[in-house]
Amino acid sequence: MTIAMATELGAMQLPTLLTARSCKGAQKDAAALPPSFSPPSALSQFFASLEGLTMEASADASLRDLVDDNLGALHETSQVYLPCATMLSEGVTKKDRYEMLLWIVHTFEVMKFSDAAFFDTVLLLDRYYSTTPQPDVSGPEAQQRLLAAVCIALKVGSRADLQIPLPKLVAYLGRDKVSFKRVIDAELAMLQPLRFCVGTPTSLEFLDSLSTRIVDCDRRCRTLADFLLQVTISDPNLHYRYPHAVLAASALALSLFVTQAPPEAYIALVEDLSLVSDDAKAIISQVVPCCAEVHQHWVKSLAGGDSSPGHGYLQQVRAKFSRPTHYAVSLMPPPASPPLCLPPRRDVHEALSAVQESLDVQDKSEGPQRSLDGAFREARFEDSMDALLQRMGGHRIITMDSSSMPKWCSELAAKLQGPADSSMKVRRILAMHSWDAGAFRHLPDRRQLLRDLTRAARMPSTPGCGSSSSGGESTKAPPRSSHSGPSLSRSSTRPPSPTGPATPRAPRARRPSTSIGASVSKVPRVASSSGCSGFGVSGATRSTNFRRRARSWCSLR
After folding, report:
1. Rounded Cα distance, 222 and 207, in Å
2. How many CA atoms lie within 13 A of 510 on its CB side?
């Protein structure tokens, strides 16, 4: 792609819309179109709805026939010229690249250059160093290449950045120590390995395109996504592992998640992202894992110390986006977990965040959480056997008195009250962990609870689940047992048969064993008269059964 073609592509970029406009009046009847034409996309309909609003909006409306093909062309061009992270690491060391990034972000902020010029300059340098085997990255030649990359980015970019003539700009940035002729020679030396293909699409251009219809959300959303993209630049393995369209969509999805955007915003994002490729399913499937990696890198960038790699660059980026002009988005804390599906299930993610925070933050007055084995040793013998049998059923539940519950358990229950009230799925999962009436009856295993909630967040929602049966009658949950023992992780009663009442389960024969561990794994379940297993009988019967089993286990020693 020549410079003229790159300029033409730049002219086709989607403009950033600063005002919220509705596209409801732009819906067209697809049946009225000829059979050879496909119905316009939602993005094209959005631009068509701008016709006649204002002079500027009418100019934007002229893009309605170009936006669909433009996104596909941007994606194809971006994939062709996407740098290889492995070759980039061979062409320039991490330390030298961090120094270049620090100089670029500081200089561009002082000179008031746009973020588009910043992304163009970084992409141009990364492409050059990934194609040139181990060039000299120190000395005056490296400085000349850096200034040459800045000049090329300003030439193919917006005219608003060229307020100063290039000779004066080079003299100012080079502190009158680098001649303009040497910079021009460095430009020619850089363009030859790049085959004079400059102005290639960056991740910021895809962010501008994908955020066009997201205008009714928090105003910090677009700026936060820009901040996340600049943070990922410090890690070339992440920034160039995914296509630019996927990376921009992931940063935008994470910013929507942080700002608590409505589900309609995620739907618009997925619809517009599907326009970049014919294989839309393969592109969309990469957003969630990429979003998780961006979230992990965001958390690491905040936890890194002064000696961590790229600390100077990340500190400069955070200082840049902490100003009121950028809505102080760098001061926003990252969520406890990234979205696991699009659109995310808000109630499940709130429960996930509460459990994750409970695991990460421990009350200093209580000290670290006791291990499961230590709790078994401290609990009474019967309660230990009860907890062990519950562990055999799939969940580890520690029986404790309500007065002896640790502080984190009550705090976690208070945080989970809201998601449990608004989501039946969350209530079902919490019920498996002894949740009852807004509190945990027994000490839950938070890591197992976190895994259960994570699986629930990834599972597709089933319409009408739990509302009605196939016959139209309401399906009610079985009544809760009246005993005061620990709740079960799995239902202790079988569902009623459609032809009649459930048949009681026959008792299993006890098998002889030679060790305590073997006898524990072979504990029989005693059937009751109601068809329930031995875990559903009364408290006195259960206590008697435990004493009998304890005597049999002790006799085997």
Report:
1. 8
2. 11
